[in-house]
Cbb3-type cytochrome c oxidase subunit
Amino acid sequence: MSRGWSIYVIALVVLNIVATVWLLWWTSRRPKGGPDPSSTTGHVWDGDLTEYNKPLPKWWINLFYITIVFSIGYLAWYPGMGNLAGWSGWTSAGEHDQDKAAADAKLAEAFRAYEGQPIDRIAQDPKAVAFGAAIFANNCAMCHGSDARGAKGYPNLTDADWLWGGTPDQILTTVLQGRQAAMPPLAAAIGGDVGVTEVAAYVQSLSGIKADPALAAAGKTRFGGVCAACHGVDGKGNPALGAPNLTDRTWLYGSDFATIREAVTLGRAGMMPAHEPIIGETRSRLAAAYVWSLSHPAAGQDDSP
């Protein structure tokens, strides 16, 4: 809160307290000689029910004063006057941090058994997989979907196709450290609009999609000179670079001609954030174990007798 707003809030609070005290004092004054027992407000109901104009009892008035004194003490103890911290030093942020620390300690105790464990081993424990599913729902489902089947630009985590590799260590590294895809715009490098069209046709032909043979043949040469550096001469990709396999039927952004041309022309820059700084190392392991179990259903079965 800025200094100006803080002064405004303090002035407003003080003005309200002073005005309340004055109003209470003014309305509780007793006339000289005592109240007129015949004085009424003029309100009459049912012919004989009259509202008299009499002051409140002193004990009731004093209760009002006590509440005002309490409010002043409350504002002095807790931060309720602009930027003034209050004598107690209490803050909502501090209380949040204490509650979070207590909750984190409970979670750490619950997750202690999984610290440093390989995710394929963790995935054999149904309880751990349930923990991982909850962590996934809170932190990963907004991109990959509640069923982990992904969407356009977000990988399906339930199949056997992995951009950065599907081994337990590779999946864990992806969750802990994140990934940054970097396909640069290639239109200028492969011959402009004509080159993009030819390469797009060739890429479609790699996965068995019907494409113009002449365009695909010309695109193969251009692909080998530029695109093969990441996707390989055979187009099967490179998990070390996150370069997808272009020979299967799994497409992150779509397999239609226009979408492929867009990718070649403009490039792609998908980003998976690192989750270790967000949810910690052990919870990242549990989430990764859940992801592992989705494409390895047998892993989630407990083989213990």
The chain has three domains: 3-77, 113-180+272-300, 192-269. Residues 3-27 form the longest helix (25 residues). The chain has 13 helices and four strands. The domain at 113-180+272-300 is CATH 1.10.760.10 (Cytochrome Bc1 Complex; Chain D, domain 2).
